[in-house]
């Protein structure tokens, strides 16, 4: 009997509150006869797993305890939420490519409490479509492919916060907050601005900036955008690019040195963000200045 081989690739990053983002890919290479893959026990944890398929997943089986709860496929974009405290087993019977959010219960409780009401559980679902989760997880995919860097921590924090909020409201029963709201107080605007500008060169988190203003991450993110017209991560990137423009004009430092001084992880990251904001790369921008 011919044997089969499996190639599996897992990439992951860990964010605040032990939230983890994982991309898992598995490819089966087989001859005419295929040995059935094993049934795997999913490690239990006091956490939720949110999985979104990045390609059609033709066939797999999923058990909760001894009960088969799913046998079949998932389409591109399908989402599943599982409570990892329960006993889960799975059998992957075809190729797959998906992205997974590992969300500890303690993190869900803490962030949802910031939003107004503590949520300790999420509704478990299989093979449903949620465009909000799809777009938010896609916004974080560059962090798994090397297209984003550690200096994008405020961005990842912001997207993770948005995911927390949506999941708590859609699948946890948390009331949807009213739109609008108020901005930061005057002293908070000054403190947030000064703190972010004085730490452009290092990795910042949304939590530490919010702490400087004495408010929660959720409140800070909403109020900052109301006051400054941009989310914190977008405002921060613009300040980094403005500093880079001054250094390009006024110094003879190399691109790598400028990138690091402005808080970018490397020259590639610097060039990419600079082009997004200025419409051209740093070298072309400098030539255009005459």
Automatic annotation (TrEMBL):
SMART domains for this protein: HTH_ARAC
Gene3D superfamilies: Homeodomain-like (1.10.10.60)
Coiled-coil intervals, chain numbering: none
InterPro entries in the record: AraC_XylS_family_regulators (IPR050204), Homeodomain-like_sf (IPR009057), HTH_AraC (IPR018060)
Keyword Lipid biosynthesis recorded: no
Pfam families in UniProt: HTH_18
Signal peptide (UniProt feature, chain positions): none
Record key words, sorted: DNA-binding, Transcription, Transcription regulation
Residue intervals of the HTH araC/xylS-type domain: 190-288
Top-level taxon of the source organism: Bacteria
This protein's name: AraC family transcriptional regulator
Source organism: Herbaspirillum frisingense
